[in-house]
Amino acid sequence: MKRIGVIFDMDGVLYRGNLPIDGAKDVIDFLKERGIPFVFLTNNSTKTPGSYREKLLSMGIDVPEELIITSGLATRLYMERHFEPGKVFVIGGTGLEEEMKTLGWGVVGIGEARAGGWRKVKHVVVGLDPGLTYEKLKYGTLAIRKGATFIGTNPDTTYPAEEGLYPGAGAIIASLRASTDREPLIIGKPNEPVYEVIREELGGADEIWMVGDRLDTDVAFARRFGMKAIMVLTGVSSLKDVERTGLRPDLVLPSVAELPNYLKAVLGEGDER
Ligand SMILES: [Mg+2]
């Protein structure tokens, strides 16, 4: 029988903001019972896997931290593997800052940057930064122009919140792209670096199912790397968007709660699909 591994996007799939999606917990229980491997993958780099674990736990979903991959964590793992150690300047939230401290290459804070420390920066890592200042953009720009690598956690230009669409990591990365004339390496969905990281996590699976709510990240990611794209309608993208963009999921479900029924059918049919 085909070994299936499942990747879940989180926001818009398992919960919306702080509200769990009905049936999300049952889906995870179903996978655990069957021994189907799964991971959670979010482009959000502002929180740590540990704080996501807490959030999921408050919704009754009990998963080890190791199964939660943020774009901040993926950035750290990718840097460990592909880049020369060197001081890091972070434009991002606490989740990204913590990952970069864990990396152990030294993080140049804003005070140190001001004192000329920006000249020693080897990597500028940019994610969504709720405390963004002109000064951070300035030192990020100076360091990149001096030759530091330019790394972005995720491409999302916006994200949905209470008052509408807020600027996302991609909007901050775009600002630095404009001020440096340099192209960043962007780690998160739908890009290759995070696929490399996730592929290792689900190494034994013959077929990977990507369950997500966004066409431009989740569905595009699945399409690009030969995964099965399962779109749920509880988040950002709608059926109208599917018609408009031409990004075709393999399957559209009203919500993640329908996934066990679908999995049962596929598993019951053995190797035919
Ligand atoms: Mg989402």
Task: Record keyword descriptors for this entry.
alpha/beta, Rossmann fold, 273 residues, 40% helix, 2 domains, single chain, binds magnesium ion, six-stranded parallel β-sheet, elongated, four-stranded parallel β-sheet
Plain-language structure description:
The protein is an alpha/beta fold and 273 residues long. It folds into two domains: 4-71 and 190-272, Rossmann fold (3-Layer(aba) Sandwich); 79-186, HAD superfamily/HAD-like (Rossmann fold), CATH 3.40.50. 40% of the residues lie in helices and 19% in strands. The chain has eleven helices and 14 strands. The protein has a six-stranded parallel sheet with strand order 5-4-1-12-13-14. Strand 12, helix 9 and strand 13 form a beta-alpha-beta unit. The longest helix is centred in the first third of the chain and has 12 residues, at 71-82. The chain is elongated and about 65 Å long. Bound molecules: magnesium ion. Magnesium ion binds at residues 9, 11-13, 212-214, 235.
